Amino acid sequence: MNMLYDSDAFAVVHILANAPLEGDTSPTDGPQMPRHGFEIVDKRSGKEVYLDGSWAEMFQSQITVWQQSMPSQEEVEDTLEGYATLAQMPVVMH
Q1: CB atoms < 10 A from the CB of 39, how many?
Q2: CA-to-CA distance for 66 and 83, rounded, in angstroms?
Q3: 79 alpha-carbon distance from chain centroid
Q4: Per-residue pLDDT, 94
Q5: How do residues 5-40 score in pLDDT, each as one tens digit?
Q6: Measured CA distances, 75 to 27, 65, 90 (Å)
């Protein structure tokens, strides 16, 4: 899990759900589909959305563009606001 962005309004985490643990050499029990994704937390509403599959690929493309163009915080948060409209899950501490 890697924190990619954290502000007063949003947090974005890159989750590598099926990534092997460091030093783990044990064989897996058959093929596993990687479930990498991004969690976007809207701190203002207290809700989060998890992007995986094609949504995660689209968001990864956006991150690549950001890495090349160095956007302002306002530009990043405008984009995150669009994804935050998908947020349905309340943030729960666990």
Answers
A1: 18
A2: 16
A3: 13
A4: 46
A5: 999 999 999 988 665 556 655 555 655 556 689 999
A6: 44, 12, 25
